[in-house]
Amino acid sequence: MNGAESLVRTLHGAGVDVCFANPGTSEMQFVDALDRTRLMRCVLGLFEGVVTGAADGYARMAGKPAVTLLHLAPGLANAGANMHNARKARSPMLNLVGDHAVRHLAYDAPLTADVAGAATPFSDWVRTATSAATIARDAAEGLAAAAGHPGRIATLIAPADIGWEEGGVIAEPVAPQGPRPLDAAVLDRAAALLQPGTLIFCGGSVLEDPATLALLAGIAAKTGADFLAPTSNRRIERGAGRSDIGRLPYPVDLALERLAPYSRAILIEAPAPVAFFAYPDRPSLLLPPGCETLQLADFDQDGCAAIAALAEAVGARPAAAADRPRPQAPQAGPITLPALGAAIAAALPEAAIVVDEGVTSGRDIGTASAGSPPHSWLALTGGSIGIGLPMAAGAAIACPDRPVVSLQADGSAMYTIQALWTQAREGLNVTTVIFANRSYEILKQELYRVGANPGPDALNMLDLSRPDLDFVALARGMGVPGRRVEDAAELCRAIADAIAEPGPFLIEAML
Amino acid sequence: MNGAESLVRTLHGAGVDVCFANPGTSEMQFVDALDRTRLMRCVLGLFEGVVTGAADGYARMAGKPAVTLLHLAPGLANAGANMHNARKARSPMLNLVGDHAVRHLAYDAPLTADVAGAATPFSDWVRTATSAATIARDAAEGLAAAAGHPGRIATLIAPADIGWEEGGVIAEPVAPQGPRPLDAAVLDRAAALLQPGTLIFCGGSVLEDPATLALLAGIAAKTGADFLAPTSNRRIERGAGRSDIGRLPYPVDLALERLAPYSRAILIEAPAPVAFFAYPDRPSLLLPPGCETLQLADFDQDGCAAIAALAEAVGARPAAAADRPRPQAPQAGPITLPALGAAIAAALPEAAIVVDEGVTSGRDIGTASAGSPPHSWLALTGGSIGIGLPMAAGAAIACPDRPVVSLQADGSAMYTIQALWTQAREGLNVTTVIFANRSYEILKQELYRVGANPGPDALNMLDLSRPDLDFVALARGMGVPGRRVEDAAELCRAIADAIAEPGPFLIEAML
Q1: What positions does the domain Thiamine pyrophosphate enzyme N-terminal TPP-binding occupy (chains A, B) (predicted)?
Q2: Tell me, what DSSP letter sits at residue A358?
Q3: B78 with A74: Cβ contact below 8 A
């Protein structure tokens, strides 16, 4: 057995059964091993950012890592932005990256570059395999590093010869590290802080467990403390019958206003809230000066256990979810932002997976859909636009029986538009709604903060018209049917229809 | 004057008048400075790989760097693959990358990551600006580092506050380092090696100067030595009336066969020829064992001067170019690879710029077009597919009066397909010919080297059908008109027509 086959068999033995791939020549022995063993579903992306974005979506919904297969340093660089987003989500991911055969690295071949250097900024764990006999063990350890609490980005670099050489040895699975225990004294202090004027700021696994969210609401009801989630999160389980959790607004002034009332903050699987960007006249940290801040559970601790312990300490019980009305379809008329939110909220079916890269146009849809049937909400966690379409593909592969609704800003969609082809090839039930405002609207808002009166050169760099993008044509070019919609009521029907049909569909909503 | 404006004014003073950009919030003060000063043509790319690929194409044709404007570590990662290609081409490039304000870096904001770490694998020069007073000087030094001999990739990281703070000081231009002098003793030894059985292997600036290529042919005629260029090069000036230079074949066996006759090799602005990839049963270095190899001019030396000195030493004069027949248009019929080459060769007009990312289907077009009117030939130098469409855009911006013909493999086109939009927005006269064989054909060939009998999973990862890509629809989606062609004679006419019309056009050639 060669090194490549030992690696594939080891990963499969540890539970990996999907490989998102964009391989090159230096990975052909892994392609061959995947082919001969037939142990994994192999999903091709036409660009590496599709591969890692899909792997993130898969991991968020499957609760375990897929493996990605990437090609040398430039291919890894192409994958980097969505590795970054996954890393900020604390999603588990194991990247397998080929490199030249060891003897070949001495020469300046055209594709020679520093693979480990390219991996390091976007990985928590990087290792280069050194022999066919040990590469499977490396993979098992990389998988364990990825699959711990929190999830991590592990990158294993595999020189070609180590894949093709004989002497591979299948390795036993390695148990991932569980969460670090909570500190009892910190718990006591946190419980003592629970009172009006205290904010419980929590993310990560807390948001994925409806029972914990109900308990959190119970703590709030019992103590008068408030609770809030970060702006963007790996996954929130929400919708009718579930406790809803608000999210910190993105715009810095709104965020400051939202946090102004608090003099105490308890952090659970979340950092102290920080502005997305710095501004000359605004603070970086968003809690009011002097706010007492306590990290009850860090990313490597169990936030759900922390909330359970808090509830026990104060004698809180799960709160019943508020009775929220089912969202109503919008009236016929232009697709204003409120109408956009209403259309999506009304169209969401039971068990939908919502992928949110709506950016400016999508900001109010979360509020609008709080009463939609229960659904999962996956967001852009690392701020690097271009994960929505791939993440939708990966989520659909993880959950073939659940419809995926992909809320997608137009500018952001163009970074990884190639993901539509993967959606078509794999026949995924993804309904993409493009929010076509034809600009980098978020940057226009930021520019007006910097210069009072931007001129044509600046606006030119933030404008996506001239020529207008035609997303229906782009989708058709990759085998995804679609249509353009200009009316809000029609949009709601179009989304519902597309969800009901199998396979991908794209709706370009003209804002 | 703030730091951003001092930087823009300094770069403009040193000759930079184009900025390829994909900015984000942390670059808004640079966008604002570009807007207020109006000193540079700002060209927006919808993805960062478009930005750096275009910058490379621009530099190859303008002979000087543009500046790129990129956003934080993930944006830089997206730019990395084409920085890699440009670096292997020794093209000059200055990347300006924003980072968070210095005080903001202490917090784990969503977009925080190691910008310098992401820059290093794909840059020759990396610096982080430290004050508004010195950022312009940093930029002048970065530009000089980029614009030396050879060209280099320089990356200047600009924290947002250093751009927005007052106190910017315009810096004087810094002279780039010229080539390191040749070694007289090495020149003597090289001249003594010139005889039958000797190969002059030369790249870089040698290929850009028709007079030097004529002198090279004269040396060969006088001494019996042969000459050859690397497989892929920054730019070759070629065509009717010019000395033609062969290129080393890509497939390793053909390359070995081509180099087998030589017992002596003189290297000029080229490394000893090395296989693109390593294979279990093939050498990495391609010259025959025992071949005496002499580096007459390294990348940092002047290859043209080396050839002039060799000619003088042996008393050679420029050779007249062979009289090559003007290529004839192919007969009507299917677009076989020979017909493809003939169609392109016959359609090429005077002064065309050919961008070659044709990969397997394009291999014979160079030979077919040796008798086409004089033209420039730009190739994929770093092996990382996805530079063709952007490079064509950048070349067209550098040379607005010359038609650009972009020879583009279908699989490779999908990595940076967004470049078509930039071609449309800027109204560039680029004729893209997509070689639609609907597979990663090069990888299929490599796979057959690894596994004798690939199964469906492997072929699935190398196949681009199911669904077929429709490049005409993709182009239309980005404002570029196009058509599909299935006949060789029609293809030739379609290319000639598209070149004659201003603005971009895409032809999907069905192979």
Answers
A1: 1-105
A2: -
A3: no
Integer Cα distance of B5 and B17 in angstroms: 14
Q: Where are the domains of chain A?
A: 3-164, 184-314, 337-510
Q: For residue B499, what are the contacts with CB-CB under 8 A and spacing of at least 6?
A: B347, B349, B352, B403, B405, B429, B431
Segment B104-121 mean pLDDT: 96
Which of the listed CATH numbers 3.30.1330.30, 3.40.50.970, 3.30.70.120, 3.40.1690.10 matches domain A337-510?
A: 3.40.50.970
User: Which residue numbers in chain A have pLDDT < 50?
Assistant: none
Q: CA–CA distance from A466 to each of A234, A463, A469, B208, B349 (Å)? A: 35, 8, 8, 36, 29
Buried b (16+ CB within 10 A) or exposed e, A449-462: bbbeebeebbebbb
Q: B452 pLDDT exceeds 70?
A: no
Decide if B457 and A35 are in contact by the 8 Å CB cutoff: yes
Q: Please judge whether B36 and A451 are an interchain contact, meaning their C-beta atoms are less than 8 angstroms apart.
A: yes
Q: Measured over all CA atoms, what is the biggest interatomic distance in chain A, rounded to whole angstroms?
A: 68
Strand A482-485 to strand A404-409: parallel, antiparallel, or no bridges (unpaired)? Answer: unpaired
Residues of A in contact with B446 (CB under 8 A): 25, 28
Q: How far is CA A121 from CA A36, A118, A150, A275, B282, in A?
A: 34, 7, 18, 21, 34
Of A231, A414, A450, the CB nearest to B47: A414
Q: Are B277 and A109 an interchain contact pair (Cβ–Cβ within 8 Å)?
A: yes
User: Is there a contact between A474 and B474 if contact means CB atoms under 8 Å apart?
Assistant: yes
| Average pLDDT across chain B, whole number | 96
The predicted-structure confidence for B352-361, as pLDDT tens digits, reads as follows 999 999 998 8
Chain B residues touching A471 at Cβ < 8 A: 477
For residue B356, the distance in angstroms to the closest alpha carbon of chain A comes to 16
Other beta carbons within 10 angstroms of residue B121's beta carbon come to 24
What is the sign, positive or negative, of the torsion defined by CA atoms of A343, A349, A351, A355?
Answer: negative
Burial class (CB in 10 A: 0-12, 13-18, 19+), A506: buried
Question: What is the pLDDT, as a whole number, of residue B399?
Answer: 98
> Which of B111, B461, B471 is nearest residue A276 as measured by Cβ atoms?
B111
CB-closest option in B26, B442, B476 to A473: B476
End-to-end CA distance of chain A, in Å? 57
- From the candidate CATH numbers 3.30.830.10, 3.30.70.270, 3.40.50.970, 3.30.565.10, the one assigned to the domain spanning B3-164: 3.40.50.970
How many Å lie between the alpha carbon of B222 and the closest alpha carbon of chain A? 32
Q: Which residues of A touch B418 (CB under 8 A)?
A: 414-415, 417
Is ipTM > 0.85 here?
A: yes
φ and ψ at B447, to 5 degrees? Answer: -60, -40
Taken as a whole, chain A contains a residue count of 511
